[in-house]
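Record type: monomer structure entry
Structure origin: computed from sequence
Chain ID: A
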Amino acid sequence: MGIVATDLGVVATDLGVVATDLGVVATDLGVVATDLRVVATDLGVVATDLRVATTVFYIAICLG
């Protein structure tokens, strides 16, 4: 029983390490997701700026 109890302790420790690793991965994925949202927001701003620039360009041609 002593050996079984020790083995279970090792298994429990290994599971704790796995749980910690998964927590780190989940945190990293959360950071990546946040970074992707920031990039998407930045791209949205760029797209809006391009639409404004295109509109201004067309207005300038029409008035030209």
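Annotation 1: The longest helix spans residues 2-63.
Annotation 2: The radius of gyration is 27 Å.
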